[in-house]
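Weekly puzzle thread! Below is a chain. First person to post its structure in token form gets bragging rights.
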Amino acid sequence: MAGYPTQALSLSESAVERARDLNQPLSMAFALLYQSWILSWRGELEATSDSCDQLEVLVENGGIESFLGLNRVNQGWVASMRGEHEQGIDLIRSGIATWAPNVFTYHSAILAEALMRAGRYQEVSEVLSAARDHALRTGEGHGETEIELIAGELLMRSDVTNNAEAERHIRRAIAIAVQQSAKSWELRATMSLAQLLRDSGRREEARSILSEIYNWFTEGFDTRDLKQAKALLDELAM
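Winning reply:
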């Protein structure tokens, strides 16, 4: 999240190898769980699926059932990204129900994205509202950036006449990411803002803000977000 996706992947791979050497099922479960999160943040769909499958087998064989719910959320993300919308949503909801209220804000963001991909916009609004209430009540900041970003993108999709409100949500997402020193989330939110500005005829402003955050990065150029940011920058430069 701090903006070093290559180092994150390397560390997660080392953790899995260390857990395998120790032959400790609980350590391996933790390592695989965090590896699947990191892989999903990098946008690596098939690798995330493989990590989830390994964790599922380990949990079933080792009786570490507490990890099932968290794994369901990641499996649901994979299914949703593959276009298996209903299965993905069901898996994510099942995982959240198992683990609520832990990591509720971030898991709600995953659910909201899946619902939006399925075109279920009213449910997206309900999930975002519940996530905001939880974050405000508990102080759980992990996922707040994504919640505000999805709120803005929801308006961009469902109410094209309300770009000003969409921009407000996305700029708040960027501000939260800056406050949390979460450069990867800042990049994702800035891409969304750049698209909104481009569509509003503010191409130079869009190019300027996106190039600033993109040029901060020194690694991870093989990840989904940085590839998309580069493609958008190339488009805005035309």
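Puzzle host: Confirmed. Bonus trivia for everyone else. Residues 5-22 form the longest helix (18 residues).
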